[in-house]
Amino acid sequence: MPNLVIRPYQPADRQPVFRIGADTAFFGAPIEAYMEDRNAFLDAFYAYYTDQEPEHTWVACADGEVVGFLAGCVDTRVHNRKLLRVIIPRLTGNLLRGKYHFGKRSLQYFGGQLGGLLRREFTHVDLDTFPAHLHINVESAWRGYKLGQRLMEAYLGQLRALGITGVYLDTTSLNEVACRLYEKMGFRLLDARPDRFWAKWFGHPVDNRCYGLKLLD
Fold it and tell me: Could you tell me the pTM of the whole model?
């Protein structure tokens, strides 16, 4: 049996966290299924957590090797402001300098996301009640060891100690195993909306889902 440990994120974990984030981004498969350049994805979606709010990220290790992580944010409004003021300008600069390579898959993905935004397919959450959020990723070979549950327990304990009122996460109906875990952890479904982009991709109905958990009464 491997030695499994959940611990706070450290700066040296950035590379394995990024690798796992990209390797599992496409519903557990690599991001390259719908985006040619994983660096653009990682800079857009995960650099905030490792660079701006690392104290709320946790990693799962097997025999000392990082095999999963939970990236957390205690105030989504702060995240959104830094996204506009720091992350997006940095991404734009990198794009203009030719750091990223976007091809047909990336354009289709971004077009699909824009269409979803215009059609109001993305879920809504009350940030007064659920100010914190999280993302969780575990390597496929290490699923079934309850690492996801242990990562969430560590993060939820941290949020409760900080007096955070609630936390939410976004997912889709395709992530059936993950949805069962969230429900087991006490999360309830806050919002669900049909997603045309992924429905066309997979050939059957897909819902965007938002789950939330109240931490304080």
Answer: 0.94
